[in-house]
Design a protein that fits this description.
319 residues; 6-stranded antiparallel β-sheet; two-stranded antiparallel ribbon; alpha+beta
Length: 319
């Protein structure tokens, strides 16, 4: 199954589902199907960090060693975690590593005094009316632990989970097999469950600067410069690709099997594609993303249809 939404100028221009959320029971995928969005969760976490920066409560140049004993000196800064440049000599090169990104959770929780899951609910899900999303598949297992999220919310999360897509993987000659669900925990790097309609609300809030100021967002959407001054593949929590004269801001999600996602923005055109799948196919096999979203056939199809003047430019024209 696959669900997509296209947002243009702050409005949903297309929302569709294809295939099946549950193959065995022939339940179709729709724009309201609930998916594990995997690493697209990182964009939310990055916004939480940058909100603290805007509030003067956090400095991106602070050493991570203040928040974790795993760091023995002050060379790794918060900005290095956000930009995936914390390994080896910090700031020297990009290396996408969700495990390193995960240290942002401790920073957020120490600075706010709240669990990360609560921050997601209070900052995104409740204010943006993302009522069909779930802050982690295990959140409804223990009412006592998560009472802080609200009794009504917990009851709704349980109802939402009945729409959770069943996960699959491709095997052999195109055979589709049930793959089993990913781990049930909630992290800074992954864990949010959402349908594309709710992610459209999030996207509109991002573009309207309801979550971050314009100048903060511009910084997040600018390639991080290496120590040598070279632009890298990532900004602060988002991938950034300059494609034939147009800047693409994007992220992907990939669980290995079961769920995948792509989130592609063309900021200059106020245009966004969000696609979620209950297999790895959006981000793997011959659609594997890597460090450039234009490796992905779904992203390229989107660009061809919605910004053909960019997609059909020659390299000479783009330069």
């Amino acid at each position: 199954g696959l669900s997509i939404v296209v947002i243009q100028d702050g409005e949903v221009s297309s929302a569709r589902g294809f295939g099946y959320a549950d193959v065995e029971h022939r339940i179709p995928a729709t724009p309201d199907t609930l998916y594990h969005i995997a690493s697209v969760t990182k964009t939310f976490t990055a916004i939480l960090v940058l909100q603290l920066v805007e509030q003067g409560k956090l400095d991106l140049d602070e050493p991570v060693s203040r928040y974790s004993e795993d760091f023995k000196d002050d060379t790794v800064k918060i900005k290095h975690l956000l930009s995936h440049t914390s390994e080896g000599t910090p700031g020297e090169k990009f290396n996408y590593n969700p495990d390193r990104f995960e240290y942002l959770k401790a920073i957020l929780e120490k600075k706010t005094g709240k669990p990360l899951r609560q921050l997601f609910v209070e900052t995104f899900l409740d204010p943006l009316a993302m009522r069909d999303s779930v802050p982690g598949p295990d959140v409804a297992d223990d009412d006592k632990t998560w009472a802080v999220l609200g009794k009504d919310n917990l009851a709704r999360y349980r109802r939402n989970l009945t729409k959770f897509a069943r996960p699959y993987t491709y095997w052999g000659d195109g055979e589709t097999l049930y793959s089993g669900y990913p781990p049930r925990a909630f992290w800074a790097s992954a864990g949010l469950l959402s349908p594309v309609r709710d992610l459209a609300k999030y996207d509109v809030a991002v573009d309207r600067h309801e979550l971050l100021k314009a100048e903060t967002l511009a910084r997040a959407w600018t390639p991080f410069l290496s120590n040598a001054g070279q632009p890298l593949a990532h900004g602060l929590g988002w991938f950034v690709t300059d494609y034939r004269g147009a800047r693409l801001v994007w992220h992907f999600g990939h669980w290995g099997t079961g769920f995948s996602a792509i989130y592609v923005k063309v900021p200059a055109r106020h245009l966004t594609l969000i696609a979620l799948a209950n297999s790895e196919a959006l981000a793997d096999h011959h659609y594997k993303v890597g460090e450039d979203i234009t490796n992905n056939v779904f992203a390229c199809a989107f660009l061809n249809v919605f910004v053909p003047d960019v997609a059909n430019r020659s390299d000479a024209q783009a330069s």
